[in-house]
């Protein structure tokens, strides 16, 4: 699991039918979570906004955690951090 900040969104008008209706957000992993600066695109089934700190599941945990076992998902926002000052 990665802790990161939502820094933007991605609009995709053409995508896999299993991803229709999902919002895509750009996540910048916190410095302590990665050796280098890292950004990734994650689906957002919980409604995080730009500027919020979030928990991101990756790999098969992303598909299972978002309830879309058969969708082509590699990263999913699974939580919003209430108090990012603790990071």
UniProtKB/TrEMBL annotation:
Gene Ontology CC terms: carboxysome
Keyword Iron among UniProt keywords: no
Top-level taxon of the source organism: Bacteria
UniProt keyword list: Bacterial microcompartment, Carboxysome
Protein localization: Carboxysome
RNA-binding found in the keyword field: no
Pfam families: EutN_CcmL
Name of this chain's protein: Ethanolamine utilization protein EutN/carboxysome structural protein Ccml
Organism: Shuttleworthella satelles DSM 14600
